[in-house]
Write a structure and sequence with these properties.
About 60% of the residues lie in helices and about 5% in strands. By secondary structure, it is mainly alpha-helical.
Length: about 425
């Protein structure tokens, strides 16, 4: 009995000892930097903790150590809850000491400007080891540095142009009209608001159309969908994006092994179907390249770079397709959701915006509004820019130094 107990407890003991030692080692390094230190006993970027944090933190509020720095800072997205409070309390720069990495948080414009300047000079780089989880469907621009990043950027940059903006404009008008009609039809339905989910759907539909040339009609969160059988490309991608942290933490291969769990089985099927959709789309676009049927979207640019220029692999094409959807989806949909909420709370701002829209568009059918009207919608742009400034979709930007000299008090997160 004792041997069984030891066999079960030994891995936990080793894990605990390793964590404590790593935290102690990083704390000693942090002390040499000379900034205020916040000890965070679990690395916020730990994949397992990313899955468990939302369930564990409410429980930890009731234990003696759980209602302090642990519950404040030991989870992804704490910056949104804290706003400027942490910097008011600890200063313009402070440091997290965690078992994984030490993190420096800055709230000084000159220091941030200097870091960005030195990053462009090659001294700072993105911590690709922390972004490696984004490689779930293949290497991509988010997990590259140096020449590899430049190579992939060259492949993707060509598709971000005025032609793409025109596609965004037209599809956004179509999706927006369908969203508005759905909200009108369901305005008297009781229950919690589905606005956040609906803006996610709208954003995804526009991304799918512009990036890959696929068009779907809008469907709302209250509309019934199939819960079994094959998923469409959009539904497979939507399911993956809704469960992105789980995908990053486990990966498609581990999900496949855990498919005996009903909830994970559908997610595993979505991952497999999405990859197959990508392979089929790759071959379809490759045929268009061969037949010189040019299309100005992201996947065509990537396929052309893979087939004609031979500078990007098929796995990198699929990896970039997923990461561009992931990077652009939540940031945009969250911005819309917060903006709509703030507009609902401030009807005078709604009227201020509507006055300009009526002046620019006039009596024209909104679906026929021309892209040339976009620069004239200054008030609408001002509202969006003001929101992004105050509640940005990206909470922080991280850079790293591989080598640093603590004796000179220089380090980086």
């Amino acid at each position: 009995m004792f041997s069984v107990f030891m066999a079960l407890s030994l891995p936990l003991i080793l894990f605990f000892c390793t964590t404590v030692w790593s935290l102690f080692r990083n704390y000693r390094i942090a002390r040499q930097v000379g900034l205020p230190i916040i000890i965070v006993p679990i690395s916020p970027e730990n994949p397992v903790w990313m899955l468990l944090a939302r369930y564990m933190l409410p429980i930890l509020q009731y234990v003696p150590f759980g209602n302090g720095h642990f519950s404040r800072f030991c989870h992804i997205g704490w910056e949104f809850d804290e706003k400027a409070r942490a910097h008011i309390e600890f200063g313009d720069a402070f440091m997290f000491a965690t078992p994984g990495k030490n993190w420096i948080y800055l709230c000084d414009a000159d220091a941030v400007h200097d870091i960005i300047k030195r990053e462009r000079q090659g001294e700072f780089a993105r911590p690709v080891e922390l972004l490696a989880m984004l490689d779930v469907f293949g290497p991509n621009i988010s997990t590259m540095n140096g020449p590899d990043w430049q190579r992939q950027r060259k492949c993707t940059a060509a598709s971000f142009n005025e032609q793409s903006n025109l596609l965004v404009w037209k599809e956004s008008l179509r999706q927006g009209q369908q969203l508005l009609q759905y909200w009108k039809d369901n305005s008297d339905v009781d229950g919690p608001s589905t606005m956040a989910k609906d803006t996610r759907t709208l954003t995804l539909d526009v991304l799918v159309h512009v990036a890959f040339g696929k068009s779907f009609d809008f469907y709302g969160a209250r509309e019934k969908r199939a819960t079994s059988g094959p998923l469409s490309y959009r539904d497979a991608l939507a399911l993956l994006l809704e469960n992105a942290i789980l995908i990053f933490a486990l990966g498609p291969q581990t999900l496949r092994k855990l498919a005996f769990v009903p909830q994970l089985r559908r997610l595993s099927n979505a991952a497999e179907q999405f990859r197959q959709y990508m392979l089929d789309m790759f071959e379809e676009q490759a045929q268009h390249v061969q037949e010189e049927k040019a299309q100005g979207n992201l996947i065509m640019s990537l396929v052309r770079a893979s087939k004609d220029d031979k500078i990007i692999t098929q796995d990198e094409v699929i990896g970039n397709i997923f990461v561009f959807n992931f990077a652009g989806h939540d940031t945009t949909s969250h911005s819309f959701a917060f903006t709509f909420m703030l507009l609902a709370a401030n009807p005078e701002v709604q009227e201020w915006m509507a006055e300009e829209i009526r002046h620019v568009v006039g009596n024209l059918d909104i679906l026929r509004a021309d892209y040339s009207m976009f620069p004239k919608l200054v008030r609408t742009l001002a509202v969006l820019v003001s929101h992004v400034r105050r509640r940005g979709g990206i909470l922080l930007t991280s850079s790293s130094l591989k080598h640093y000299d603590c004796t000179n008090h220089s380090s980086a997160s």
